Amino acid sequence: MTHHGNSSENARHRDLFIAYEQTCFVIDAPGREIHLRIGQHNPEADTLLKEYGVTGAAFITAWNPGPIRLRPAENDRRQQLMEKQIQSSGFRFLRGRGKGTDPSWIPEESILVFGIPRRLAVALSSQFGQLAIVWHEVDKASILISVSS
């Protein structure tokens, strides 16, 4: 039995993770934009988290599950559903978007969810078919967390 499908899928996922690591995750904070980048510490993001009384936050999206590009209307519907779930769980969030380096890739609407436990952010993202989330903790670099791990 060969595993050609798995190796090509793994290669696609690896390429996506490389793209995620080069993405700028933009938070629409009150009066300013804050940019998160994987592997970089952002004191401005720390200040924002402290303003919301939390030490951690997840940057998540419901757009384009895995490598699949959906129509904008479908992405918007999925994002609204995710936001409703977050609101009903009692978490506060700010909207933003992930802006990749590929000009053909439309920035993905996203949210920074304050104080959500990491495992819950991973579970919610998994429910929406996502491969990874961005996690930011005060005084630390933002990291990419695989949803499948």
Structure in a nutshell:
This protein is α+β, with helices and mostly antiparallel strands. It has helices at residues 4-21, 43-51, 72-88, 118-127; strands at 24-29, 32-36, 56-60, 93-99, 108-114, 132-137, 143-146.
Structure keywords:
149 residues
Count of DSSP H/I helices: 4
Largest sheet: 7 strands, antiparallel
Rg on CA atoms, Å: 15 Å
Estimate the strand proportion.
25-35%
Low-confidence stretches: 1-5
Residues in helix, %? 25-40%
- Rounded average pLDDT: 90
Count of strand segments = 7
First CA to last CA: what distance? 25 Å
- Total number of distinct structural domains: 1
Secondary-structure map with pairings?
Layout: H1 4-21, E1 24-29, E2 32-36, H2 43-51, E3 56-60, H3 72-88, E4 93-99, E5 108-114, H4 118-127, E6 132-137, E7 143-146
Antiparallel strand pairs: 1-2, 1-4, 3-5, 3-6, 4-5, 6-7
Would you mind describing this structure in some detail?
The chain is α+β, with helices and mostly antiparallel strands and 149 residues long. The protein has one domain (4-146). It contains 4 helices and 7 strands; from the N terminus they run αββαβαββαββ. It has helices at residues 4-21, 43-51, 72-88, 118-127, and strands spanning 24-29, 32-36, 56-60, 93-99, 108-114, 132-137, 143-146. The protein has a 7-stranded antiparallel sheet with strand order 2-1-4-5-3-6-7, sandwiched between helices. A hairpin with a 5-residue loop joins strand 6 (132-137) and strand 7. It is globular and about 40 Å long.
